Batch of 3 targets.
Target 1
Amino acid sequence: MKKPTMQDIAEAAGVSRVTVWKVLNNHPGVSEVKSNLIIKEAALLGYPLPEQFTNNTVHANPALMTNTSHESATISVVVSRPDSSVFWSNIIHEIAKEVTQAGCSLMYTYVPTEIPKDYILPPPLTSGQVQGIIILNVYDAKLLSILNRLPIPKVFLDAVTNFSLDTLAGDMLLLEGKSSVEKITDYLFASGRQKIGFIGDINYALTNKLRYEGYTASITRHASHIDPAYCKTGTIGIETYVEEIHNYLSGLRKLPDAFVCVSDFVAHVVYQELMLMGIRVPEEVNLTGYDNIADYIDMKDFLTTVNINTSALGKRLIRQLFYRIENPDTPIEVIYLYSEILYH
């Protein structure tokens, strides 16, 4: 097994390697809160601590200790790409209302979509300033791992596909997609569509993978095999979605009868590209989505999708965090939320 290094401790604690060096060598300039966190992470990793740390019990700083009640707590919503969609802003707005009604304070903590090697978490997350966090729209595996190690109550909404639920140190809410997308694909077959494709990056999010599994379950029952030519499931760049889908559709020798899209956003990109190609939607190629995002009014009359009640979702997230704050020792929960399919 690889011997842990100061860099490993720095990544686990969300601090710089220099800060770890200062603490382990008893140099001044690091707060007690951060020092305790670094020592705790070092011990968990099995790093050989100096004698002064191994001979004395390191007590958690009161600022990092979990409250028995969420009253007067400061809650942080940790978000990446917060302005990407009304979908996300509606969820955050509902969280803010619930936090205010509960007499708590809300803090927004913005994090990058991808983090560099020497990334350090924003100080409020490591200083004991917040008593709980909700992680939204964060899809960087390394960043999720760092956030997961924070010794405060936390709730995740979704995660990257390769995030191991066995390591989960907070509750996770997932939008159920397997059964709903399986039903949507069944519906396409029932409406006479025989060649059905799938578009969506299944490496990006656990929920995306679940939706693809629903699609494949239906295809397997209705057809002899899944045609790989009609499936674009690999990694798609956040900034290059339009270009990559354009190239994919343009490269097809023949279009399928329908595409099951991993989200309304993807369905809208596909819709615009098909229209530019002179393809009639939904007459020639039908499309389905997921989320029921109000942004895309040009598809509202034909797009079959899954309606996500963002107000209810925001409430569920913050109430789950309040529960976790008040019940820190109960088992970690992975919760699947089922939603209504809107057929067209």
Target 2
Amino acid sequence: MELKLILQIVGFTLGLLYLWLEYRANIYLWLVGLVMPVVHGTLYFQTGLYADFGMNVYYFLASVYGWLVWRNAPKTEKGGGISRTPARRWPMIAAAYAAIHLFIYWVLVTFTNSTVPFWDSLTTSLSIVGMWMLSRKYLEQWFVWFVVNLVTVGLYFYKEIPLTALLYTIYLTMSLAGYFRWRRMMRRQMRG
């Protein structure tokens, strides 16, 4: 079996497990998040998605960070701790996204043979923001993932990695389901 297909199958399986754990706001998502970037990073490098490859280095480090933040949350937050993104954070989030997108785009155009530098840098920069928001258990992180997943589906079909595109189609649907589940969890924690 071709390595590209094996990586897609393993990545698909890990991705479903990760998504299920994220949907349930389960801390073990971060442990899966330590393995998944190795698999997807290898796949993306082979297909010339260099920003997505680099993104997986960040995903690995973000998983370590997320694990530590969630593990060390006050006991009252371990079952919840979900909140809305504070309004004062949005300008910082937008500025971080813009700066990261421009930097990654410049790197891709200047130093790689990427055929999709704008889209690759868009999904990567939004993913960086989304992972940070996830580590903080901000409800709106699901909207960021919705946009990432929507663009990624098209990008991965274009790059001829259809099984991974299918995984992101599932992610796209689960972005909405995750938002509604987390919102219910947040409301329950506020009442109780």
Target 3
Amino acid sequence: MTRIVNIGEALIDEITRPNTAPVEVVGGSMLNVAAGLTRLGHDSELATWFARDARGDKVRAHAEAAGVTLTPGSDGAEFTTVAHATVDDRGHATYEFDLSWDVPAVEDPDTVGHVHTGSYAVVLEPGADKVLAAVKRQAIRGTVSYDPNIRPALLGTPDEARPHIEAIVALADVVKASDEDLEWLYPGRPVEDVIREWSQSGPSLILCTRGPWGVYIKAAAERDMLVVDPLDVELVDTVGAGDSLMAGLISGLVDASLLGSGEAKQRLREASWDQILPAIHRGIITSGITILYQGAYSPTREEVAGILAADPTLRG
């Protein structure tokens, strides 16, 4: 089985919804993706940064309950990061943070097939330089995926954050971003232009999620961009939806032997839509299931299979 290592944040989300008191739950983009991958049947590890405090104990318990392996040294922080999430009437979340970020070294890096990273892990020091080094090492021998998952409150100005983000984009095989991410990074530029520019810098597959307008996709071996509709479900909460899509996408690409090794890297570079679309649809399905629940719910492979059985056109 492909060894997948996620590098990035695991934290406490303090969630405030309309007319309710704040509630603390375990979250973090990279932990959500790692947990999503285990729920889909993959061995998934997480190199992260939390403390040996009460909140850190919750993070550890959540990761272990999800079957996620924590990289030794991940509990070396002075305090566990808290993301204060405010969810509006439309289910959209905005964030403020009390955080600390560093990252331990991944053990036995030569045995890693795929690395996923994103969010503030690639921008904030002292961890950012270590993440970049790990991605550079992985890009030589295996595959890398990246989700910028922009948090404006943490990243300074777009001009300050852009070089860090573009450095990872150029090293990654798969990049997923939202239209909000791209608008913050490149104000006023059409998302199609940014997708094409990023594609030319190195990635074999780029996705841009656009809410009700679907997912815009660019593959290296295909000339034209593709648009795939979102799953038609009733929105309850967007928390974790992008992470769920990422987990489903990685899962599908690994199962298709398009991620996880140097050979898979080349196959993805040459892959047609017919080869890629089943993984895209798995990601859209997992995301569509997640938004039916409050919080970062991770669907199982059986739930995905149930959606596919009801609508075989989603198979690709």
